[in-house]
Amino acid sequence: MGTKRSGGGLSTTQQVAKFIGVSTLAGAVLAGLALPAVGALGLAAKGTVEEFDEIPANLKTPPLSERTTILDAAGGEIAKVYSRDRTVVPLKDISPYMQQAIIAIEDARFYEHGAIDLKGVLRALNKNAQDGGVSEGASTLTQQYVKNVFVEEAGDDAEKVAEATEQTIGRKIRELKYAIQVEKELGKKRILQNYLNITFFGQQAYGVEAASQRFFSKRAKDLKLQEAALLAGLVQSPSRYDPVNDPEEAKTRRNIVLQRMAEVKNISQAEADRAKKLPLGLKVSRPKNGCITAVEGAGFFCDYVRKVFVNDPAFGKTREERVQRWNQGGMTIRTTLDPQAQRSVQKAIADQVYAEDDVATAVTLVEPGTGKIRAMGQSRPYGFQENQTQINLSVDEAMGGGKGYQPGSTFKPIVAAAALERGVKPTKSYSSPYKMRYPSPVQTCEGSWRGTDTTQNENSSEVGPYGMQEATAKSVNTYYVQLISDIGVCPVTTLAHRMGVDRADGQKMEQVPSITLGTQEMSPLTMANAYATFANEGVHCTPVAIESITGPGGKKLKVPQTSCERAMSKKTASTINTLLKGVVEDGTGKKAGLSGRDSAGKTGTTDFRYAAWFVGYTPNMAGAVWVGDPEHKRKMIDISIGGRPYDKVFGGEVPGPIWRQAMAGALEGKPAPKLPTVKVKDPAKKRPDPGRGDDKPSGRAHGGTGGDPWPDVTIPPGLIGGDDGTGDAGAIGGWDVGGDLGGDFGDLGGVGDLGGRNGNGNGNGRRP
């Protein structure tokens, strides 16, 4: 029995025995490769294959993952996204120097041997046997290509990557088997082309085209001798020879490649010597991957496009299949984003809300009639640093957003539309006291709601009666509480759903009358798309972000189209247009009104001022602006936004001007059609109210005119005198305290409480 030599090495006898054994194994392997039907190898050790003949005969070659380019509607680049930064190119578009360099350094006999280089195999087996492990490889370019295919197929699965690269005899046997098949089916030139396109060169660059762009900012077909040698040298160890991080080591490796090219007669020794003296000549292009690199603040829209892709069955039967297809890349995606609109939105945001403010804003523009999302931006940029976020504040939770924000009074037009659809006239008036208890019970889809909740108007001077137009212009809460109590909750939620209005968190909308005041959380995209229905004469179109997709090889992919269905009658939509034009002309949204074109919209401010909104539209664009704290913690009272102080924030005060600026820029140079409207005679127009804030501009003066001043006035049961003589809100009388039947009934100047807030008024009505 042999003994170890001093120093722990094998004795001469052991070396000879191991060499004989390895040579025998090599012979068996090669025999098996040549004649696959000949007996099994019987390699039962872990990490080997048990039966050589059981290895599939055909190598599964997955499509190579490439970068995907996302474009705006005009063809401008928004961003490049990829799991592998790769651009596949044919061999004719790869410099001959590059082809020669990679063969010289990795497999000089590439064109002389078959799938396996017998000399190399025997040399490596002997070396590994002496070392007691796998310390040297003899892989041909074909074998390396096979290994890279398995690595590519493994993707980001660490366990599969480890299996694809494990240093075992079993893996090498499998690699040899497939190499034979590949050589037979593809041929040398196709193998070389595939190898150069699949190989990793470091710095996130997969394939020679991406590597050439990364290190030299040029096409692979334009690589010079010394540049090609540098890239070829990287393949053995991309991190060790990285020219960016270790230029000296990279230069040494490059010169080794140049010398090897001279030895195999690809170039002369003089050419090699001259090239060795040249500097590396790097012109590095930094990796630009992902939506974080998107232009014009379109990072969130870019991410929304990805979400659409991985969630829509149009791109694959299962989510796993769609994610795999997205990661495979190689697509050119043209989106609906209008660069003019996007720039306008971002400028309006930057001018009026700062990233470091306590609150944020999100703005989305949608095109009526097509559902195309034309712009999407927010004040906190896409990113991972302070005052940045990855949450898209414009969209629903399932699409990368948060749980949404209460839309406040911007929901009221949906209630008005539901009422009009049920035959309620726009002249309908309600007593609309300053403060009142919700009528109870109220019909719902499941039965009825009962409760004792109360609500009140923004200012104590807001005392009815009001008709629908003035109540909408002034955003009178008690009017809309009475309206939804009459028609029921179910018609409202049903119409909302037809308009694409659902909760941002994916939950069902609650069947409660308080939804009339916008208590259910929505996203800006949802609200913009809903208002586009009014602009589109009552036809709702689902939002879309993708115009077309071209896959690898120029293949067109089918993309989801908008689906348009009538949600309400044209007359209802035209009536809403009339009501909402009043908001921007003579109501809470005056600061949002556009000059030179028809516009309509609605302000919204939630309880405690956690959020403020303006949602509006023209015939050819609809937009929603939300301002608030995404975490619902900071009240917008005594606050600075965009460098300007505010005592209180209203929907018409901060969101309104943002909407106006964003829309004006987005529509500049575009047609200015008229909104279809109807004539609405408001039966209860009030005189200006003293002490009203900027968000609540007063209505026109109204004096006694004789006749019946309150057509269609409805006084809910139990409202007069309160429920028990101590009710919160009487229907007629005083200002915020009233008389028994006080007020000057004839000229509407003093509309009393009829029992007052506490049922003890003195009968002296007061005029606002």
UniProtKB/TrEMBL annotation:
Tell me if Secreted is a UniProt keyword of this record.
no
Keyword flag NADP: no
For the Glycosyl transferase family domain, which residue ranges apply? 77-261
Region (Disordered) residue spans: 667-768
* Catalytic reaction(s) noted: [GlcNAc-(1->4)-Mur2Ac(oyl-L-Ala-gamma-D-Glu-L-Lys-D-Ala-D-Ala)](n)-di-trans,octa-cis-undecaprenyl diphosphate + beta-D-GlcNAc-(1->4)-Mur2Ac(oyl-L-Ala-gamma-D-Glu-L-Lys-D-Ala-D-Ala)-di-trans,octa-cis-undecaprenyl diphosphate = [GlcNAc-(1->4)-Mur2Ac(oyl-L-Ala-gamma-D-Glu-L-Lys-D-Ala-D-Ala)](n+1)-di-trans,octa-cis-undecaprenyl diphosphate + di-trans,octa-cis-undecaprenyl diphosphate + H(+); Preferential cleavage: (Ac)2-L-Lys-D-Ala-|-D-Ala. Also transpeptidation of peptidyl-alanyl moieties that are N-acyl substituents of D-alanine
From start to end residue, where is composition biased (Gly residues)? 719-768
* UniProt domain Penicillin-binding protein transpeptidase: residue ranges: 362-627
Pfam families hit by this protein: Transgly (PF00912), Transpeptidase (PF00905)
Which superkingdom? Bacteria
Keyword tags: Carboxypeptidase, Glycosyltransferase, Hydrolase, Multifunctional enzyme, Protease, Transferase
Q: Where is the composition biased (Basic and acidic residues)?
A: 679-698
Q: PANTHER family, from UniProt?
A: BINDING PROTEIN TRANSPEPTIDASE, PUTATIVE-RELATED, PEPTIDOGLYCAN GLYCOSYLTRANSFERASE
Name of protein:
Penicillin-binding protein
* Protein's organism: Streptomyces pactum
What lineage is on file?
Bacteria, Bacillati, Actinomycetota, Actinomycetes, Kitasatosporales
